[in-house]
Amino acid sequence: MKTVFQLLFVVVIGYLGYLIYDSINQPIQFQEQKDKRYDAVVNRLKMIRDAQVAYKGIHEKYTGSFDTLIAFVKEGNFKITKNEGSLTDSMLNAGLTEKEALKLGIIKRDTILISVKDSICKGLNPDSLRYVPYSPDNAEFFLGASTVTSGSGLVIPVFEASVENRVYLKGLDEQERINLDDNARQLGRFPGLKVGSLDEANNNAGNWE
CA dist 18 to 24, 31, 202, Å? Predict the structure, then answer.
């Protein structure tokens, strides 16, 4: 009987030890997986932002449709200006301006077209642009476009792409994720990751920046 109690005692101690280990290790594992997914989602949102900026450069507005944005990435080009030549220190000291240098042919400026797909979505199938990385059910980012009016009456195009924590952290420890959401709401922040805003012109900033 004594041996039985000793064995039970060892089992109970072992189980309690496991519970203590798990309570310490679980938040660490959550943080590791969260950081991995966080980095992938931020990288995808940056691609969406770059694609939207290129789209606006051609169409003078953003799009709230992934179908439209992805078609643009696949087939579209955007313009960049390339300068050839430069002003020397002596030219600058003499008061020569860039505008005058252009007229004199000292500086040449060419506009060239760059493929959106090759420059913005390198290594990524454009069709994947809409999907949240690590999502087990191919969840899509929210994408919207609108305009806001500044205090001076200027109408400014805006867009927003976002995903909530509950979507990109799905499958990880639920209580840890709930704690993240609660902390964000207490600080008046969006409980997830997003770039841009439909409510204000924020220079397309991401909430991780």
Answer: 10, 20, 48
